[in-house]
Specification:
Blueprint lengths: L1 H8 L18 E2 L2 E2 L5 H9 L23 H9 L21 H6 L6 E4 L5 H13 L8 E9 L2 H12 L5 E7 L2 E2 L17 H8 L11 E2 L4 E5 L3 H4 L4 E2 L6 E10 L11 E3 L5 E10 L1
Parallel strand pairs: 6-9
Antiparallel strand pairs: 1-2, 3-4, 4-12, 5-10, 7-8, 8-11, 10-12
Organism: Schizophyllum amplum
Protein name: PARP catalytic domain-containing protein
């Protein structure tokens, strides 16, 4: 690597970047420039000499570009419909969940985010069926219009799993939770708002550690904590949406509680600790 360092210090133009990692200059020695920056990247390329992922290209795919030979061909794959676009930049192919590699690097790992669930998919159909089967209210069952899956930070999920392990006689059950939703969630891209008065977004972002207006707990008849329902019709009574949204909004949760709680019960399930429940999906529905 001495030649590369000498080249930079001499004021010469910088070397082209490594064809594998795309981050460091190519290694140059005795006037010969190699396509890699190091032995590590050279070995990686040796294990994966596959062609560019764009069907019309026969060049070698590069790890730095997600299997494409260049960023230009990665973007072209989205344009011609060979790859799904990143939901943030809408230009490059998805590489990590719904994000491209670049946007995923910018994603805060300590922040919850939302992914839209495709209508007709297994997740959508199963959640819709469960929502309807558990609904125990007057009138017809509301129509589920949209569903977002909640992706939580690793620390939040770790706390939930640790709590579940400490309660061997309780099981995970699906419950429903609602508060006021003052943003127009569901009408634009799946993004959580920053309004302190939005109970839905505050609850998701904090994983039920903070509610609307910064409250740290909810008030029950005799105790404080989190109150959730197996019957979504009961949670619906707490749902309030802004006037600009056509939806009512509810959170489908995974809670650690007593499995014997009666299906369709109107009673609230009291959870004294936020680790006992995590948001799993956001349901947008019309009554």
């Amino acid at each position: 690597m001495a030649a590369s360092r000498n080249q930079r210090s001499s004021g010469l133009p910088p070397s082209p970047l490594c064809e594998v990692c795309g981050k460091r200059p190519k290694f140059t020695e005795n006037g010969t420039q190699y396509p890699y920056c190091s032995r590590t990247c050279a070995s990686k390329q040796g294990l994966n000499p596959s062609a560019c992922a764009l069907s019309s290209c026969g060049a070698t795919g590069r790890t730095a570009f997600g299997g494409y030979c260049s960023e230009q061909h990665a973007a072209e794959a989205v344009q011609v419909g060979e790859a799904q676009a990143c939901t943030t930049c809408m230009r490059l192919p998805r590489a990590v969940a719904d994000l491209c590699t670049a946007c995923n690097r910018l994603q805060d790992p300590n922040t919850a985010r939302l992914l839209e669930v495709a209508p007709g998919s297994t997740d959508f159909v199963n959640l819709d069926a469960h929502f309807g089967s558990e609904w125990g209210g007057a009138g017809s069952i509301p129509l589920v219009q949209k569903v977002y899956r909640v992706v939580l930070p690793a620390d939040a999920m770790r706390g939930y799993h640790d709590y579940q392990s400490s309660r061997p006689h309780e099981q995970r059950i699906r419950t429903f939770f609602a508060q006021q939703c003052i943003c127009d969630l569901g009408t634009k891209s799946p993004v959580l708002c920053d309004f302190k008065s939005c109970g839905i977004c505050m609850s998701i972002k904090s994983c039920f550690r903070t509610f609307a207006f910064g409250s740290k707990y909810l008030e029950g008849r005799h105790e404080k904590g989190i109150f959730t329902y197996r019957n979504p019709a009961m949670a619906d009574k707490d749902a309030t949406s802004c006037t600009s949204s056509p939806y009512r909004v509810m959170i489908a949760c995974d809670a650690v509680a007593d499995w014997s709680l009666e299906k369709g019960s109107v009673d609230a399930i009291h959870l004294p600790y936020p680790e006992a429940m995590v948001p799993a999906y956001v349901i947008m529905y019309a009554t």
